[in-house]
Design brief:
The complex is a heterodimer of chains A (about 575) and B (about 475). With about 575 residues, chain A is α/β, with parallel strands linked by helices. Chain A has a domain at about 95-220: Nitrogenase molybdenum iron protein domain (Rossmann fold, 3-Layer(aba) Sandwich). Chain A has helices at about 10-15, 20-25, 45-50, 55-65, 95-105, 120-125, 150-155, 160-175, 185-190, 195-205, 220-235, 265-275, 290-295, 305-320, 335-345, 350-380, 390-400, 415-420, 430-435, 455-465, 490-500, 510-515, 535-550, 560-570, and strands at about 65-70, 110-115, 145, 180-185, 210, 255-260, 280-285, 300-305, 325, 385, 405-410, 485, 505, 520-525. In chain A, the strands form three sheets. Chain A has a six-stranded mixed β-sheet with strand order 1-12-11-10-13-14, with helices on both faces. In chain A, strands 3-2-4-5 form a four-stranded parallel β-sheet, sandwiched between helices. In chain A, helix 6 links the parallel strand 2 and strand 3. In chain A, helix 5 (about 95-105) packs across helix 11 (about 220-235). Chain A starts with 11 loop residues before the first helix and ends with a helix. By secondary structure, chain B is α/β, with parallel strands linked by helices. Chain B has two domains: about 10-30 and about 315-465, Nitrogenase molybdenum iron protein domain (Rossmann fold, 3-Layer(aba) Sandwich); about 35-280, Nitrogenase molybdenum iron protein domain (Rossmann fold), CATH 3.40.50.1980. The longest helix of chain B has 23 residues, at about 440-465. The chains are: A alpha/beta (about 575), B alpha/beta (about 475).
Chain lengths: ~575, ~475
């Protein structure tokens, strides 16, 4: 990212007026209860049964375990992160997509070489999804898709030589700081050793080169790729450079983990943090450069936005360097304010806490009029979200801001703890698919381990309502009786739309046109339909306006939704 | 038409365009075989495309095609995981077929392989035989009627999306075509064209009284209307009866059909197996190439060009005249699928816009000779096949054309070099309506002509200090 300008001076009068005791009394520990289900909602038990009716018995039993009626207090156990049944059309992608496409791809100045046939590189060619604001003098390869473009010859005789050549070519062409190599399905099968090639070329060229064994068939979804990406990035990049002394004067130094700058979200988060006087060292991995990640071990706090894709990194950085992590949600104006207050409470500095309060007050003053207006037009209209490994949770905060109840939600590739919360994480059964992904054993670094908070301090924070390394999950923040559906299939989605008559469904491109054909607007939460940013305060305003435009668009008057069509024919 | 023997494109290229060809590919100009196969299968009635391999392939391809067509598209996957790479994916394939059958009740499942299953050497044909086996197959096991299973091998490392498309069409024809008394029908293999193109091909054929068998025809499924209830498999597509009749058609026409050596065309198969005469025509874009197509239809039907079509032809020439002063002497770079760029380049040549470079990621090896054959007057068109956008952009910097014509992946180049891009082909991911752009026939050429000329006019208008609003 470009270096931000100095944090602006805030009005002294406002800063002095902040009532610190009142701020300390704000309860930050409680999950925000979801808006209750609309009065005329269908019976959830019957609906859950209907959803799986068409399946063969074995699939029916399997799918039933992924569909739960929510109870925000007595959280039911939901099955997640298990293999999709063959032939059931899923939203899920592959391991390579999670590693290259999600986590590593957005880093602007690494040359990402996809070792494999042409398709995989082509489909993960990022031209818009992840944005970056790169200074003119810095390198930026976001618009490039490099591949070894394996042909039959390499499948038969091995592709290591071609990979070495491709690395050499990329080096000659760009002289990048680092090169990352991503394996696609055939690579593991023919036994190419991408790590050996990477090591050899690293020695030869004198720049950091590292490989990822993220073949598409590994794991059950892109989630496996996130884990592999975390491991590789942690082992090969994090902590390899030190933050210059001049940049270490601000104690409020953080990393933003699991923020990929889709639609410019990271820009808004950078702006907010800077206003509060919080120094952002690096973002994993939106709008970020290689060196920023290399220096991330010098932060004093890790903030996690997308828990699913990056929690491994936070855990490993805590074990090795002693940096605690805090789950935040910068999606939604209220939840952004809450997240900023949590950061203030963590650092415990009265000036910082006062600054944060002033920033929240100023920003909310701009948010409120729009929110109020939009709310009057969308209040009470039901929403469903089936997307991602965190987004289906995060975006509920924005709908809560607008008074739109979430009647059903689910993730594509999340694990049980993303639904039920960190507390149950240790009880997850490790199946063969998860065991295949390496779990790194990380101990304290002999030199650089420096616990930013002592055990006592952490306990004290918890007593003040600030629980570190904890994610409460999606289900505690959803309504009683709402339906939680993991790894939703096309058929189930269609039945849910008919049953709930939602005003809006949030999903991705693969479902968008089915949903819209049925007369229901669909907001894509993967690429934002070219909109955004939706994070932070300014993002919330964008989102309110966008949802208002979509659900109240003129075109829906011309379309008969299925429930109305049913009535007509009845 | 004079036919010249020319060296293959690959040999030709090294001499004239990129002096050193890189080993790796940067910003590819082609997609993978399974993508083409899935699109082709979608053009057959009640067919569900099914990829045997990692589920990511189905997901990526769905994302790509759905974004282009702005239409739902389901592609099933056998979701082969790590264990199955060791023990084989037959159980996954079997479960997958059972689930798709149960949920979709398709008439046919169009199977295609992926890099994964090809690399581990899965024998899908044998698996299909076992799944469909009368006593030990799925029906015997579950009591469920199994749809027809068709398979095309499509490893990405062996070809392009165009290859996968033609391979799938051929697989369906091989499975369904039967011999019979020769009819008046004509097999028409359109290749990868837009939904509007498919509809227009049917319209032109009907104009000659020809009953065409269009294989495939995804014009309804991939460009459907709004429906209160979305069908799991939307209506439309070439029917099994139509494909069966292709074995007894009076002739076949393949439009384009430049494929990587080793990939057979359905038209060739029908010629070999059922002696259906096969003609290979370039995509009908521009007067000359559309004339070739309509002449052939006239020959086959014995009918004259219908009046409405003759009028369209006349209007197109009239439009060429109206626009010649804005187009003549200008230059362009064309990129995309081999079949499409041959047509577009020849059309440009015809209106006096010189195609400086014609580029494709295709690997047929015949791109240069085909362009030279059609355009003997323009011996120095530079041709780049098996190319990527790194090479195209490098040449564009030197050649400084007035226009780029190709799909939306060229936008980055267009933006960096400040050269306008006229969008044709697949994918068009940054405009609405890419799926229904008309390119073919006199009418399609007319639309393309207007877009090309207006783009040139707009640049002149924007650059003008005066800002003329009258030509």
């Amino acid at each position: 990212m470009k270096k931000p300008e100095l944090a602006p001076t805030l009005p002294a009068k406002a800063l002095a007026a902040v009532d610190l005791d009142a701020v300390a009394a704000i309860d930050l520990s409680r999950p925000e209860p979801g808006l209750s289900m609309p009065m005329n909602s269908p019976d959830p038990e019957a609906l859950a049964k209907t959803l799986v009716r068409a399946y063969p018995p074995k699939v029916l039993r399997k799918r039933s375990r992924h569909i739960k009626i929510n109870d925000p207090v007595e959280i039911p156990k939901i099955e997640a992160n298990t293999r999709t049944a063959p032939g059931i059309i899923t939203q899920r992608g592959c391991c390579y997509a999670g590693c290259k496409g999600v986590v590593l791809g957005p880093i602007t100045d690494i040359v990402h070489i996809v070792h494999g046939p042409v398709g995989c590189s082509y489909y993960a060619w990022m031209t818009r999804r992840n944005q970056a604001d790169v200074a003119d003098e810095d390198q930026n390869f976001l618009n490039y898709a490099f591949t070894t473009d394996m042909s039959e010859n390499e499948i038969i005789f091995g592709g290591e030589q071609k990979l070495a050549q491709a690395i050499q070519e990329a080096y000659d062409l760009f002289h990048p700081k680092a090169i990352a190599v991503f394996s696609t399905c055939p690579v593991g099968l023919i036994g190419d050793d991408v790590h050996a090639v990477a090591r050899q070329m690293k020695e030869q060229l004198g720049i950091n080169i590292f490989g990822f064994s993220c073949e598409g068939y590994k794991g059950v979804s892109q989630s496996a790729g996130h884990h592999i990406a975390n491991n590789g990035l942690f082992t090969n990049v994090v902590g390899t450079e030190e933050l210059p002394a001049a940049e270490k004067t601000n104690p409020f130094r953080v990393n933003m983990l699991g923020e990929y700058n889709i639609g410019g979200d990271a820009f808004e988060i950078e702006r907010m943090l800077n206003r509060c006087g919080i120094q952002l060292i690096s973002t994993f991995s939106g709008n970020v450069q290689y060196s920023e990640i290399a220096r991330s071990a010098d932060a004093n706090l890790n903030l996690i936005q997308c828990h699913r894709s990056i929690n491994y990194m936070a855990e490993m950085m805590e074990s090795k360097y002693g940096i605690p992590w805090l789950k935040v949600n910068f999606i939604g104006a209220e939840s952004t304010a809450k997240s900023l207050r949590k950061i203030g409470r963590y650092f415990g500095d009265p000036d910082l806490i006062a600054r944060i309060e002033v920033v929240i007050a100023q920003e909310m003053a701009e948010v409120e009029p729009v929110r109020h207006q939009v709310r009057s037009r969308v209040n009470g209209r039901p929403v469903m979200l089936y997307v991602g490994g965190s987004r289906a949770h995060h975006y509920q905060a924005l709908f809560a801001d607008m008074g739109m109840p979430v009647v059903s939600a689910g993730y594509e590739f999340a694990h049980r703890d993303d639904y039920e919360g960190s507390a149950m994480a240790d009880t997850i059964t490790i199946d063969a698919d998860s065991r295949a992904i390496e779990e790194l054993e990380i101990g304290p670094d002999p030199v650089r381990f420096n616990p930013r908070k002592t055990e006592e301090e952490l306990a004290e924070l918890e007593a003040k309502g600030l629980k570190m390394h904890d994610y409460e999950g999606m289900m505690p923040e959803m309504a009683q009786g709402s339906l939680v559906v993991d790894d939703i299939s096309h058929v189930e989605l269609e039945m849910l739309i008919e049953a709930h008559k939602p005003a809006l469904v949030c999903s991705g491109i693969k479902d968008k046109y089915v949903i819209e054909k049925m007369g229901v607007p669909c907001k894509q939460l993967h690429n934002y339909d070219y909109g955004g940013p939706y994070a932070g305060f300014k993002g919330a305003v964008n989102f309110y306006i966008e949802i208002d435009r979509m659900v109240n668009a003129e075109v829906w008057r011309l379309v008969t939704p299925p429930w109305a069509a049913k009535k007509k024919s009845a | 038409m004079t036919t010249k023997t020319l060296p293959l494109a690959d040999q030709d290229k090294t001499a004239c365009s990129t002096p050193t060809k890189s080993t790796s590919t940067t910003n590819a100009c082609r997609m993978c075989m399974p993508l083409g196969a899935c699109l082709a299968y979608t053009g057959f009635e009640r067919t569900v495309p099914f990829l045997h391999g990692s589920q990511g392939c189905a997901t990526y391809i769905r994302r790509y095609l759905i974004s282009h067509f702005a239409e739902p598209m389901d592609i099933a996957s056998s979701s082969v995981g790590e264990a199955a790479t060791v023990f084989g994916g037959e159980a996954n394939l079997r479960t997958g077929v059972a689930n798709v059958t149960r949920v979709y009740s398709p008439a046919m499942i169009g199977l295609a392989s992926t890099c994964l299953t090809e690399t581990i050497g899965e024998d899908v044909d044998s698996m299909i035989r076992r799944i469909a086996h009368p006593t030990e197959g799925l029906t015997a096991q579950t009591g469920q009627e199994i749809p027809q299973l068709v398979f095309a091998p499509t490893p990405s490392y062996a070809g392009t999306h165009a290859d996968g498309f033609h391979a799938a069409v051929k697989a369906v024809v091989v499975e369904q075509a039967v011999a019979g008394e020769t009819s008046q029908k004509v097999n028409l293999f359109p290749g990868i064209v837009s939904t509007a193109d498919l509809r227009h091909l049917l319209e032109i054929s009907a104009g000659y009284g020809v009953e065409p068998i269009l294989m495939p025809d995804y014009s309804d499924r991939m460009d459907g209307s709004s429906a209160a209830r979305y069908d799991m498999i939307p209506e439309g597509g070439t029917t099994a009866d139509q494909v069966a009749a292709s074995g007894s058609a009076q002739a076949s026409i393949t439009l384009g059909g430049l494929v990587t050596p080793g990939v057979d065309l359905a038209g060739e198969y029908l010629a070999k197996t059922f002696s259906v005469p096969h003609s290979h025509l370039p995509m009908p874009i521009g007067i000359r190439l559309t004339d070739e197509f309509t002449d052939r239809l006239s020959e086959l039907s014995g009918a004259e060009m219908p009046t409405w079509l003759a009028k369209e032809r006349g209007r197109l020439i009239d439009a060429y005249i109206d626009g010649h002063k804005y187009g003549a002497g200008r230059t362009a770079i064309v990129f995309g699928d081999e079949d499409l760029v041959v047509g577009v380049a020849s059309f440009l040549a015809e209106i006096g816009i010189k195609p400086l470079l014609v580029a494709s990621g295709g690997r047929s090896g015949f791109l240069a000779s085909e362009i030279a054959r059609i355009n003997p007057d323009l011996p120095d068109i530079e041709v780049l096949d098996d190319g990527d956008f790194n090479e195209i952009e490098a040449r564009a910097k030197e050649l400084k054309p007035d226009l780029l014509i190709g799909h939306s992946k060229g936008y980055a180049t267009s933006r960096r070099l400040n050269i306008p891009l006229v969008r044709v082909g697949l994918p068009i991911h940054d405009r609405v309506g890419g799926q229904r752009l008309l390119h073919l026939g006199y009418r399609g050429t007319q639309e393309l002509f207007d877009r090309v000329i207006n783009t040139l006019i707009q640049v002149r208008q924007d650059e003008s200090e005066v800002g003329y609003s009258y030509m």
